[in-house]
Amino acid sequence: KDAREHGMAFSYFNPAYHDDLRRQMDIEQGLKEAIDSRAIDVHLQPKFDLATGRTHSYEALVRWTHPQQGAISPGLFIPIAERSALGQRLDRYVLTRVAELIAESLRQGKQEPVIAVNITARHFSDTALPEFIRDLLHTHQIPARSLQLEITEGIVMEMRRTTTAILDELRQMDIEVSIDDFGTGYSSLSYLQHLMVDELKIDKVFIDDLESERGATLVRAVIAIAKAHDLRVTAEGIETSDQARILTTMKCDLGQGYFFARPAPSDDVLGLNGARSQRRFRS
Ligand code: C2E
Ligand code: MG
Ligand code: MG
Ligand code: MG
After folding, report:
1. Which numbered ligand comes closest to the C-alpha of 178?
2. Where are the coiled-coil regions (predicted)?
3. What angle do CA 144, 195, 249 make, to 5 degrees?
4. N- to C-terminal Cα distance for the chain?
């Protein structure tokens, strides 16, 4: 038998591999059920205007507690969801929950929140996405400016025709789009001028390196390029007051990170009374 066949046979009988596969299938199945029963929670983390210190908007981040496995990090289950149609289902679930939150805030007389939702890569090549969002705005009677989308740099770099068409359509609907994890895609910055997006989020790895000479130079350059293209620029993963101060000096527009606020349950963050979630858990 050739070595490749041996390798495959080995990995098939490898108990660790089997456990991984098993765990992955558990997660997929559990996620499906959790979406259907609305057992997945949406937390919000604010983005602050660095010049004024005011809250500019929020980012929605999913939180899932698996009945057997406990809390599972999005960093683990999002990639699993992305490999199947579950990514689209999860995105639509979060979009719906966020639309409900915005509508509920308005009903309770709060200031209209602006909430950004992360969209999986595969879903962003689904031409039905703008239509789904249009329906959502209509159903919940919320303005387009209250909902934003975050997509990763990789999605935009591919620049598939469908991606461009979707960006176009969202622009016409006045839905703002950010490029998340900016700087991790090793892309040329020249493509920025062709992009129809509104915001760049500088990835945490660059913020971590901000106190070094090289790191600072890099971040300063990204901010300058963003401004040259009329893009709002956000720094993510700010953990120290020094980082916040440096970024403010560099005229970075927005800042997000544990130094300011951790992601927290949406009702608490928006100051909503919990009637809606209590009703949900009683049924
Ligand atoms: P992301 O969109 O880049 O979100 C930022 C991540 O960094 C979040 O992790 C957030 O909790 C974390 N974070 C924020 N501030 C700090 C900080 O100061 N220090 C550190 N160490 N971390 C910080 P989280 O919630 O675990 O999410 C991880 C990734 O999973 C997200 O990265 C996003 O790509 C994905 N994700 C999360 N929620 C959703 C969702 O609702 N839909 C989709 N499609 N993806 C999501
Ligand atoms: Mg994000
Ligand atoms: Mg990010
Ligand atoms: Mg990130």
Report:
1. 2
2. none
3. 85
4. 58
Q: Which residues line ligand 1 (CB under 6 A)?
A: 45, 60-62, 73-75, 78, 91, 94, 118-120, 150, 180-181, 236-239, 256-258, 263
Amino acid residing at 81: A
Q: Which residues share a beta bridge with 43?
A: 61, 265
- Give the 3-state secondary structure percentages of the chain, helix then strand then coil, rounded to 5: 55, 20, 30
Structure confidence by residue, pLDDT tens digits, 176-198: 999 999 888 766 666 776 778 99
State residue 215 phi and psi, 5-degree precision: -60, -45
| Burial (CB count within 10 angstroms: exposed 0-12, middle 13-18, buried 19+), residue 73 | exposed
150 Cα: distance to centroid of ligand 3 (angstroms):
8
Residue 221: burial class (beta carbons within 10 Å; 0-12, 13-18, 19+): exposed
Sign of CA dihedral 50, 46, 219, 176: negative
Per-residue pLDDT tens digits for 36-66: 988 899 999 999 999 999 999 999 999 998 8
CB 178 within 8 A of CB 201: yes
Distance CA 37, CA 280 (A): 10
Distances (CA, A) of 159 to 152, 175, 188: 12, 19, 13
Residue with tokens 């009945």: 67
pTM attached to this predicted model: 0.91
Which residue has tokens 């705005």? 137
What is the C-alpha to C-alpha distance for residues 218 and 206, in angstroms, rounded to an integer?
8
Residue 87 and residue 81 in contact, taking contact as beta carbons nearer than 8 Å = yes
Distance of CA 215 to the CA centre of its chain: 24
